[in-house]
């Protein structure tokens, strides 16, 4: 009876490793050839996982072969623009200079309702506000609003802003991030003093503590456990 969970664990770990090797892409960001390989790998892993009469190698070897194909195609598309266009295709302009490209929509079998829905998802309810809409090779729609419809930013108002970096997490769920503390050139004694200002005796009482680029410390204590009635 142990053979089933062992085979399942081996195939699971293999597929996880392969997905990591293939890259950090979400399903909606996969190129067509990557999506096909992902689907095939899942099917190949499922068959020997369910049927113990099939040798495990009969699933592992085709999966590794698909990984080799995926890596090879990725390297080819990375080195050659012409190959990338053949393998991945190219972006399609659906709206150009505020004008809907009717024939491009028909070619892609992309109807007006789909286009309007994608624009609404990007908080653009009025198609007349769009300068360019480009359907990327991943299937996602990139939208460039007309200049007078774009959000105002500090540069437009000639406002000088200070640098904002990523906040540094110092405590996560009661666990002290000592490497982050060292990178920030801070000591544990300093952190203990800061926690004391919030009435906290140690970091195990803290759900999250982070330090922003301006030196401001954010602390959220853990909530007390509720007593069962």
Molecular structure report:
- This protein has 229 residues and is an alpha+beta fold.
- The protein folds into three domains: 3-86, no CATH class; 92-149, 2-Layer Sandwich (CRO Repressor); 168-221, bsu07140 like domains (CRO Repressor, 2-Layer Sandwich).
- The protein is 45% helix and 16% strand.
- The protein has eight helices and eight strands; from the N terminus they run ααααββααββββααββ.
- It has helices spanning 3-22, 32-50, 57-79, 81-88, 102-108, 112-121, 178-183, 188-197; strands at 92-96, 99-100, 130-135, 141-145, 168-172, 175-176, 206-211, 217-221.
- The strands form two sheets. Strands 2-1-3-4 form a four-stranded antiparallel β-sheet. Strands 6-5-7-8 form a four-stranded antiparallel β-sheet.
- Strand 3 and strand 4 (141-145) form a beta hairpin.
- Helix 1 (3-22) runs parallel beside helix 3 (57-79), helix 2 (32-50) runs antiparallel to helix 3 and helix 3 (57-79) packs across helix 4.
- The radius of gyration is 26 Å and the shape is flat.
- The relative contact order is 0.07.
- The model has no long low-confidence stretch (mean pLDDT 86).
């Amino acid at each position: 009876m142990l053979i089933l969970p062992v085979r399942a664990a081996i195939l699971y770990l293999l597929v996880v490793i392969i997905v990591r090797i293939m890259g950090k892409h979400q399903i909606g960001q996969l190129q067509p050839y990557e999506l096909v390989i992902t689907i095939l790998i899942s099917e190949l892993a499922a068959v020997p996982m369910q049927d113990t009469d099939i040798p495990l190698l009969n699933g592992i070897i085709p999966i590794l072969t698909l990984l080799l194909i995926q890596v090879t195609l990725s390297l080819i598309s990375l080195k050659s623009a012409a190959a990338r266009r053949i393998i991945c295709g190219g972006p399609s302009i659906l709206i150009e200079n505020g004008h809907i490209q009717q024939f491009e929509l028909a070619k892609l079998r992309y109807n007006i309702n789909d286009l309007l829905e994608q624009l609404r998802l990007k908080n653009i309810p009025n198609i007349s506000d769009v300068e360019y809409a480009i359907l990327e090779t991943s299937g996602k729609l990139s939208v460039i609003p007309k200049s007078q419809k774009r959000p105002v930013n500090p540069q437009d108002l000639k406002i000088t802003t200070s640098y904002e970096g990523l906040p540094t997490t110092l405590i996560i769920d009661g666990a002290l991030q000592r490497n982050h503390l060292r990178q920030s050139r801070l000591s544990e004694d300093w952190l203990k003093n800061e926690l004391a200002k919030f009435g906290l005796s140690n970091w195990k009482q803290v759900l999250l503590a982070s330090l922003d680029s301006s030196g401001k410390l954010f602390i959220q204590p853990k909530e007390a456990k509720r007593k069962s009635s």
